[in-house]
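Structure ticket #2291
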Amino acid sequence: MSTAEPAWTLFRYRNADGTSKDWAYRCLADGRTEVRWGRTGRVTQVRSYGPDRAQEIPQRAAEKQHKGYVPLGAAVLRRGALEPVPAAAPSEPPSPKPSSPPIDLSPVDLSSIDLSGIAAGKDDFWF
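Resolution: structure written out below.
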């Protein structure tokens, strides 16, 4: 894929038998939208939509997701197969999470705790 060629937005549906099918679209510089679909590894069906029908594509993508297609993000077309583009590594390391306050693990003097009121002659123990 050259830098001028737009990436595809890829959706994949996995069948119960382990096979899958792809549906993808990309917006071209001239305003047209190109859609490809077919079995994973072989997306042979292609259709181009003019700028006047560009609003239909996001609606179609939503319908595909409703049917069970999973969005896989950007993809490139190589030898008739749509291949997901790996997500770029973050440019900076993630910020460290704030540390929790220290926990006091010192022993507790249990002799000062009065537990006599818990059962107080009742037969309904709750522990």
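Closing remark: Residues 8-83 form a domain with the q64v53_bacfr protein fold fold (CATH 2.20.140.10).
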